[in-house]
TrEMBL record:
The keyword Lipid metabolism does not apply. It comes from Bradyrhizobium australiense. It holds the Pfam family ABC_membrane_2. It is found in: Cell membrane. CDD domains: ABCD_peroxisomal_ALDP. This is ABC transporter ATP-binding protein/permease.
Length: 580
């Protein structure tokens, strides 16, 4: 019961915000319509149950006129039922897509807000495969929540509607055994209740492991899909290294987990299905077994017997709701757990950015990026680099060097405000514009124009502005391809991508430009030409570069060196430190 309450509380926490959102009236209206139609369908089932008695009595008595009128009556009910069923499905699907659209927009907004997606990865990404959480899991959550919720309501209303009928039929057709009537008030109701409760308990005992197995299945499927995407994204490097055999082995290992877990699902589902199928088949004849002695003792007519069987079937089916949808319940609970984990991961990432013991980034100062008492850590708490007293002054060009792993790129991440691990503060001039260019720049899939202008909205710059910038960085041939669609991180060489990244910098003209080995794939003459271009076109921009080539010294006024100092790296003492 504790687990059920916890799951329902989680479902409410995930579901309720939509019905309080800006789309609440449409959502509430659609939900009310779906529920109203479901209640109307239950009402029709009650009318059909009453029709059963009249129809089969007409057959037993060979009453042609009554037979014809009951056929017409049933046809009208059937027509109404069909219309209701069609529109219930239509409105249900309409509600699903609106609800899913809202949840997806909310999750995307929270995931992408203030670099939460990046901090979730730094934490080990306990909420693995966020792409699956916002696609498959959201879709399944909305679908299963509506179907299970409406089905449960329907079962409750069905029980309330048919128990009264079944109780009355129990009195009309008393339990007849060994030639005697045994007075058990509402014995048909108690029979349906006992039959359903026993079936529900046994189904749960057999099927409860499906929850964990379904959770792992979705996890393994997402992991396999994610690694297939990685192979596609890195196909060139894999081909150059002849890594196809290694990748095939890795992918088959991951798919092996999918198969192994699927076999576990098969075995458990086989047991559940064997029991539920037996249970459902037995439920067909069980009411006839209970009421047949009264019928053969001529206590009731054929119509009464058929009505009793129909009412019993409705009550027993409603009471057996959880047996019928047990497989869906297991899948639903796994989805709820995954969305709950995703939301928890977002909360943890948000807390990393707001906790007191972190790197504080704030606006202030006149014309410099100032680092005070800055001590950066790895996510596991290991000391990485101290950069106390470092300042990047307006208009200066600074080169940051040091061995691999000394924390140069992490220093840039901290200045960008996305690295929370550490202590100290970073002050950035109010309203200053900054741009970080990594060694491998990111270009969204789409038009070349949009890839160059990113993160600005497409159309921010004119064709002439983009064409001139492309010509200056040495990519004039791309000026005629601005409207072409493509995956530019795959179709362009790394050197061309780096030139395109500098094109972006020239267009945006940030006040602070951080280059993290952003020209490392170019030859030295090309690198020198691009640095001279930046110096000419962006004379007021403060430039901070990470690089290892000695030729970069000529394009910078200062050289900051990070060197080993005990258990961490720090600004090197002597000439470079004095320059700070």
């Amino acid at each position: 019961m504790k687990n059920i309450r916890s799951t329902l509380a989680t479902v409410w926490r995930i579901s309720a915000p939509y019905f309080r959102s800006e789309d609440k009236w449409a959502g509430r209206g659609l939900l009310a319509a779906v529920i109203a139609i479901e209640l109307a369908i239950v009402g029709i089932n009650v009318l059909i149950n009453q029709w059963n008695s009249r129809f089969y009595n007409a057959l037993q008595e060979r009453d042609w006129d009554s037979f014809v009128s009951e056929i017409i009556y049933f046809s009208v009910l059937a027509a109404i039922f069909i219309v209701l069923a069609v529109y219930q499905l239509y409105l249900n699907q309409w509600l699903q897509i609106r609800w899913r659209r809202w949840m997806t927009a909310q999750y995307l907004g929270e995931w992408l807000h203030d670099a939460n997606h990046y901090r979730m990865q730094l934490q080990g990404d306990a909420a693995d495969n966020p792409d699956q959480r916002m696609t498959d899991d959201v879709k399944l959550f909305v679908d299963r929540t509506l179907n299970i919720g409406v089905g449960l309501l329907s079962s409750i209303v069905t029980i309330a509607s048919f128990v009264t009928i079944l109780w009355g039929l129990s009195n009309a057709a008393p339990l007849h055994m060994f030639g005697q009537d045994i007075a058990i008030p509402g014995y048909l109701v108690w029979g349906a209740l006992i039959y359903s409760v026993l079936g529900t308990i046994l189904t749960h005992l057999i099927g409860w492991p499906l929850v964990g197995i379904d959770f792992r299945q979705q996890q393994y499927e997402a992991d396999f899909r994610f690694n297939l995407v990685r192979v596609r994204e890195n196909s060139e490097q894999i081909a150059l290294l002849n890594g196809e055999a290694a990748e095939r082995e890795r992918l088959l290992v991951r798919f092996g987990r999918v198969v192994e877990n699927w076999i576990a699902i098969m075995n458990r589902t086989k047991k559940v299905t064997a029991f539920t199928a037996s249970y459902n088949q037995a439920s067909v004849i069980f009411p006839y077994v209970l009421v047949a002695p009264a019928y053969f003792a001529q206590k009731i007519q054929l119509g009464g017997m058929m009505q009793t069987a129909s009412a019993f079937s409705n009550v027993q089916g409603a009471l057996s709701f959880f047996i019928t949808i047990y497989r869906q319940l297991a899948e639903w609970q796994a989805v709820v757990n995954r969305l709950d984990g995703f939301e928890a991961g977002i909360v943890v990432a948000r807390e990393l950015a707001t906790r007191e013991n972190r790197v504080h980034v704030a606006e202030g100062g006149a014309g410099a990026v100032d680092l005070k008492e800055l001590a950066l850590l790895l996510p596991n708490g290991t000391p990485l680099v101290n950069a106390n007293g470092l300042s990047f002054r307006k208009g200066e060009r600074t080169l940051v060097t040091g061995p691999s792993g000394s924390g140069k790129s992490t220093l840039f991440r901290a200045i960008a405000g996305i690295w929370p691990f550490g202590t100290g503060s970073i002050t950035i001039p109010a309203g200053a514009t900054m741009m970080m260019l990594p060694q491998r720049p990111y270009f969204p899939t789409g038009s070349l124009r949009g890839a160059i202008e990113y993160p600005a909205k497409e159309g921010t710059f004119t064709d002439d502005q983009i064409g001139n910038a492309l010509e200056q960085v040495g990519l004039p041939r791309l000026a005629s391809q601005l409207d072409e669609q493509g995956h530019w991180n795959r179709t362009l060489s790394l050197g061309e991508q780096q030139r395109l990244g500098l094109t972006r910098a020239l267009l945006h003209a940030p006040q602070y430009l951080f280059l993290d080995e952003a020209t490392a794939s170019l030859d030295e003459p090309s690198e020198a030409a691009l640095y001279r271009l930046i110096e000419k076109k962006l004379p007021a921009t403060t430039i901070v570069s990470i690089g290892h080539r000695s030729t970069l010294d000529a394009f910078h006024q200062r050289n900051i060196v990070l060197a080993r100092d005990g258990d961490r790296f720090a600004l090197q003492k002597g000439k470079s430190a004095a320059a700070t």
